[in-house]
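User: Second chain of the day. Same drill as before.
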Amino acid sequence: MVEWWSSLSTLMKALWGITLSASLIFVIQTIMTFLGADSDFDTDFSGDFSGDVPGDISGDFAGDGADAGSGMGLLTFRNFINFMLGFGWTAVLLRGSIQSNTLLFTIAIIVGVILVILVMLLFKWLASMQQSGNIDVYKSAIDCTGKVYLAIPGGRKGEGKVQITINNSVREYDAVTDGDTLPTGKDIRVVDVVGPNTLLVEEMNSIII
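Assistant: Same format as last time:
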């Protein structure tokens, strides 16, 4: 290993350094994604960068940064690593067959950009699938019955929480009601879905005329 490293040119050492570093960080990011702890990397990177961009572009980048944890923002640390991953591996694998550094780097940059785009599209698709799945779950909650877990203020003046049985499992959701305040433990029925995380419920014994 030492002899192999010593035999490399300065350029190849730099390329291998970039590639191996990006690969290691990519593996760490992947593990942290499964653990749900990787959002800080992207948020901090995009937040700091957007402050230096003038005009409307700053606002757009800042908006993208809000979605950085999902991999959908453009200027995020995750996308930077994805680019370096595609760039580095392409450069080291093609270095022996392409002698022109200009052509080599051009191809490597293109591959890096393509990888970033593909990963962004993948995250966007996963996010849309997750959103669709949530909508289906909430829609199937209509007419389900359950109990109030946290008291729900009457007249939609605030939210409480309910536990209902849906798809053969007990689930907890935010809830509002048009009627009187529903205390904890009250039997309820789901009337409608009024938000991405909120159900409209009523008393089980309520009578609508």
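The beta strands are 145-150, 160-166, 169-177, 187-195, 198-203.

User: Great, on to the next one.
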